[in-house]
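Justification of resources, computational component.

The compute hours requested in this renewal are based largely on the per-chain cost of generating structure records like the one below. Each record pairs the submitted sequence with a full structure-token output. That output is archived, and it is also reused by downstream analysis tasks.
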Amino acid sequence: MKIRLAEIYELTGTIEIRTGLHIGAGKETLEIGGVDGPVVKHPHTGQPYIPGSSLKGKLRSLMEWATNKVPVGDNQPYYGVDANADYELADPLLRIFGVTAKKWKGGPSRLIVRDSFPSPDWVAQVTKLGLPLVEEKTEVTIDRIQGKAAAMGPRTMERVPAGARFALEMLFKIFDVDDDGGAADRSCLSELIKTMKLLEQDALGGSGSRGYGKLRFLDLKLRSLQAPDRPRPIQERFDSLRSFSDAVDFLAD
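The structure output for this chain reads:
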């Protein structure tokens, strides 16, 4: 089997937060009256950001559900837990996100997801208004019998507020596998972008079922890093998606 790195595509855009986003950071100390669930922040600037691992993990999970790769019952998780499993080479899920199985011959993960940092324009706008970059939301546990707040008391969660914008940057490697010219991986890139539409219809971070983490992708562009290629707008095609089963080629002219 021959595998050659043929091309790298850059996918950029903006992540706009539609409802409060909570991607949690661990607490080293317990403070009376403090925030129970802080969000992850840059250690130098103190500004919130979206870790690439959180975004990539959510995309992977959604694609597993959409392609019927979620284990049922006592079955092992699909993703590389069985190091000796003989996984299907053509599987887009494994090509995109990678696998640790020793018998896997399809090459490394195609996808790199960068950390997404706040848009400077959004930070400047919020700072000018004297507003914080995060919000605190108080929640309670409801006593199911009495229909009121339980005796354990409220908890305070930190969130990135609705309206926040973050810069999106992902890289996708195209490998020529057995002289296919990279056709299989180019198809995988379209599958990844369709999964991003699933994320718009779902939620990122914690407490998605309670209203957190709704987002949308804006100003999406693709460009090849191997050729003098201008960023190619794909937002219109992305917005037209209605289902993961839609057939859309995002690299077509």
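The longest strand covers residues 3-17. Strands lie at 3-17, 111-113, 135-139, 142-143, 148-149, 155-159, 165-177, 215-224, 232-233.
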